[in-house]
Amino acid sequence: MSETAMGAAVVCAGAAAWLLGGRHFGAARRAHLLLAGSGTVGVGPPARRQLADGLRRVRGRLRAEWWSLAAGLVLALLGASVLPAVAGAAGVPLLRRVRLAAQDRRARERRGDAVIALCGALAGEVRAGRQPGEALLLAARDAGGLGDGQAAVLAAARFGGDVPGALAAAARQPGAEGLLGLAACWRVAVDQGAGLAAGLDRLEGALRAERDQRADLRAQLAGARATALMLAGLPVLGLVPGVALGADPLHVLLHTGAGLGCLLAGGLLEGLGMWWAMRIVRRAEAV
Length: 287
Prior knowledge:
82% of the residues lie in helices and 0% in strands. By secondary structure, the protein is mainly α. It has a domain at 110-202. Helix 12 packs across helix 13 (257-286).
C-alpha cells in the first residue's frame, strides 16, 4: 500500500471515529492503530472529552434538590404560570434536608461499623499479650472508630489518663454509642482485673447483632417506603394521559379557579399523606 493510500485510510478512520464515537469508537480506534502501524493515538475526540468532563463537573456540583427547581421551571414554561417555579423553589430546602439526613445516617452507620472493628482489633491485640493501653493505640491506628475523640482517648491511653471517661466523651458522636460499652469493659477490666478480651468479644457480638437487626428492619420497611413514594407520584403521572387526550390539564390547574382549588387541596393532602406514611416508617425503625 502506498503512503498516500495509507494516509487516506488513517484520515478516514479518524473521521469515522469523530462521527460515530461512543460504542463504534473502539473499532475505529483499532482500525487507526492497524493502519497507522505505530505511534500514539488519542482516546477520543477532544471536543467530546471536554463536553463529557464539563457535564460530569456540573452534575457533581448540582445537588439533587436543585432538580426540583429545574422541574418547576420546565412546568412553568409549559403551563405559562409562575406557580410551578415557586413550588419547585419551595421544594429545594425540603429535599436538601432529606439529602443531609441520608448523609448523616450513612455517616452514623460507617462510624458504628468502625466501632465494631475497633472492638475486634482491640480484643486481638490484648490476646496477643499487649497491655490495654498499648493495644488501644495499635487498634485505633488500624481500625479507627474513635472519630473526633481519637486524640483525647489515645492521649489518655498513652499517659495513664482516664481512658473510660475519654471513651464516654467520644461516644457522644452519632453512631459511636458502642464506645460506652467499650468504656464499661475497660473500667471493669482495669478496676476488677476481669478479662478485657472476653468482654470485648461479647460487646462486638452484641453490636454486630444490633447492626444486623437494624439492616433487616430497614430492608423490610423498604417496600413500604417505596410504595408510599410511588403513590405520591401517581397524581403527577396522571397528567400525562390528560395531555395525550388533549385536555390541557396544566391550563386547567394553573389558570382556572376550580383547578387552583383542586391543586391546593391535592397538594395539602399529598403532603399530609407523605408525612403520615414516613412517620409510620420512622416509628417502626425507632422501635
